[in-house]
Design brief:
7 helices
Length: 166
């Protein structure tokens, strides 16, 4: 499956466009990488603060429901930006990424991490106060926070490691 996707991308007009842009637009590679890193900072900042609040390690005076409502929209704005900036590089060199096991590891962490963040956000919107409602929901929130922190740490480590695992 990934062979077909990598091959199709490598032969697509999108590949030619991405290669052209990265090679001919002055400063585009570092600008795209910098925007990608800023997006990572926004995602990590918002997610980690919510996770640390669930664990009782940050801003104990802040209501969890309100914190989720204020911070997770940063995640939802940053993720599409990261998708676009990341796709620029993946489309330009699909074989480098699709055959890199660390790239697979990154997405094996990223998909469930985003799913957990979405579940927390969605539940918070549908049932405000849910995460503070009982001991069992607070424990569930803590479990989600621990898993989330591990997954996002895996995403960041793998993302950084990709450059060194060719």
């Amino acid at each position: 499956m990934k062979e077909r996707v990598a091959s199709a991308l490598a032969e697509s007009p999108l590949n030619e466009l991405a290669v052209y842009l990265l090679g001919n637009v002055p400063g585009l590679p570092p600008i795209a990488q910098s925007i990608h890193i800023l997006g990572i900072a926004a995602v990590m900042g918002s997610i980690v603060m919510v996770d640390l609040r669930f664990l009782g390690l940050a801003v104990p005076s802040q209501n969890i429901t309100e914190m989720i409502r204020r911070l997770l929209p940063w995640t939802w704005w940053a993720l599409p930006i990261n998708l676009l900036t990341g796709l620029l590089f993946v489309v330009a060199r699909p074989n480098r990424y699709f055959y890199n096991p660390v790239f697979s590891w990154k997405f094996s962490c990223l998909v469930p991490a985003v799913a957990l963040a979405f579940i927390v956000f969605w539940v918070n919107r549908k049932r405000p106060g849910f995460w503070e409602a009982s001991i069992s929901t607070r424990l569930l929130g803590r479990l989600i926070a621990i898993i989330s922190l591990l997954l996002w740490t895996g995403v960041v480590l793998a993302g950084r490691w990709i450059a060194y695992s060719d």
